[in-house]
Every structure is written in structure tokens, then in C-alpha cells.
DNA sequence: CGGAATCCTCTATGATACTG
DNA sequence: CAGTATCATAGAGGATTCCG
């Protein structure tokens, strides 16, 4: 993203967490600690293997999650948040809170419009 | 987004601010107060009219920005953040700060890798 | 089990031209 | 000035198959 004032780095953070399932992945890892590939698939049945893999790779690339492979057959791979990745939780929490109040606000807006249509 | 624990509403907020130019639009409005359509175009020359319009409509739809049209020829339309939209600034600031430190962290990672390649 | 490879679809964005 | 209308395109995501 260009043409943003003051050398803004909002987009840097945004790019880390944008991706259809990245938030879900991070929240599951934050909640469960360590998870194997198929455990992630089980809690997110709608994600395809390909997308899950690519999201995990990208999060790993940014240092947000850690990937540990155990050289055995069948393979075993464990994912977890890094300390660094955990520092994102503050932002996620804030976004969650704002989202909740936003939904409440929209509710109020819609009620008001209904009222005005009925009584205006 | 589904399959997220605890009825999470992170995605609600994310959906508001995802869009190639939405962050830029919000930051310009936060910085300048009120701006006309073509003023926004001038500070963001890479955005096409169509995309700028659709982003503005979506932000307005969510109550984040306010659109005021003056019924005159030639038309005059002014955009500004709503009080409500301004409550997002906290999140944007936090994301900016995280982005800055993330870039610093990546720098360090890359330096370390160079060092290890030279001296390992 | 945890992928990689291939092919496909759909949506966000862009280019361009026109208008009240 | 502030849009709308059309058409085009890249890339994110999805479906399916195969593999060590």
C-alpha cells in the first residue's frame, strides 16, 4: 500500500493477519498451545489442506508461529505460536471488542430505521 | 469466517478495514478532517474512481465515515470520519506500532542470517 | 500423516469511457 | 465534480489427485 501519510505501517500488520483463515489459526493455537496439522484441520473442517498449509507457511515465515517436525513415520508436525506471535493477541483482543460493539451499534441503527419507517 | 472459538468477532473488525485503500482513506480523513472526493483522489493518485467510490460507500455503510452532498452544480461532496469511526484510531495506532517493531525484528533476523552464513 | 501438484473459480481491483 | 457503466485481469482460495 502506498500514498499513506507519515510512513504508516498499519498495512504491515494487516498483511500478517489477512488471509481467510489466519485469525482462526492463531486463535486456535493461542487457545490450545500446540496443535498438529490434522488437529487444526479437525477444528477447521472447511479449510482445504492446500490453504491451511500455505497460511501456516506464511505465518511461520513472519515468525508468528513455530513449526516443529518429528522425523518419524508417519510424520508428526506440531504448530504453536511464538512468543513474538503472542504479542499480536493484544491487537486481536482489541479488534474483537471493537467488533462486538460494532455489531451492537448496527443493531441499534437498524432498530432506529425500522422505527422511523413505522412512525415517520 | 466460521469455525472460530468463543464467538470471536475479530473478523467483524477486520472486514471493515480490509480493502486495498481503506486504511489510507481513513488515515487521510483522520489527518485532514474533511475532504472532497477529488482531494482524496489527489492524495491517492493510484486509486481508480470506481474503487475509491466503492470503498467510500462501504465505509459509509458501516457508519465509519460521513458523506455530505451539497446540491449544487458542479456537485460538491465532503467526506469525514464519524465519531464512531474515530474509535478505530486506537486499533490503527496499535497496528502501526506493531508493524514498526515487526519490521525491526525482521531486519534483525536477516542480519543474523547473513552473519551465520558468513561465519557459520 | 502431512503434505505437494494441478487445475479451476470467483471476487477484488483496475482500465477506460461516458454523464448529470 | 463526482460519480456510473462495461469490460478485463490477477491472485486468493477451493477441489481433486497423488506421494514419501
UniProtKB/TrEMBL annotation, chains A, B:
PROSITE patterns: HTH_HXLR (PS51118). The keyword DNA-binding applies. Transmembrane segments: none annotated. GO terms for molecular function: DNA binding. SUPFAM superfamilies: Winged helix' DNA-binding domain. It comes from the Bacteria. Pfam families: HxlR. Gene3D superfamilies: Winged helix-like DNA-binding domain superfamily/Winged helix DNA-binding domain (1.10.10.10). Keywords: DNA-binding, Transcription, Transcription regulation. Residues 8-107 form the HTH hxlR-type domain. This is HxlR family transcriptional regulator. It comes from Psychrobacillus insolitus. The lineage of its organism: Bacteria, Bacillati, Bacillota, Bacilli, Bacillales.
Amino acid at each position: 500500500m502506498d500514498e499513506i501519510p507519515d510512513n504508516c505501517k498499519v498495512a504491515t500488520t494487516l498483511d500478517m493477519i489477512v488471509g481467510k483463515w489466519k485469525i482462526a489459526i492463531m486463535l486456535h493455537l493461542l487457545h490450545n498451545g500446540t496443535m498438529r496439522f490434522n488437529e487444526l484441520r479437525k477444528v477447521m473442517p472447511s479449510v482445504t489442506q492446500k490453504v491451511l498449509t500455505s497460511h501456516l507457511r506464511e505465518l511461520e515465515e513472519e515468525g508468528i508461529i513455530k513449526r516443529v517436525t518429528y522425523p518419524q513415520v508417519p510424520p508428526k508436525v506440531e504448530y504453536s505460536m511464538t512468543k513474538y506471535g503472542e504479542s499480536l493477541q493484544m491487537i486481536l483482543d482489541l479488534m474483537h471488542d471493537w467488533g462486538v460493539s460494532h455489531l451492537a451499534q448496527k443493531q441499534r441503527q437498524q432498530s432506529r430505521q425500522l422505527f422511523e419507517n413505522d412512525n415517520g
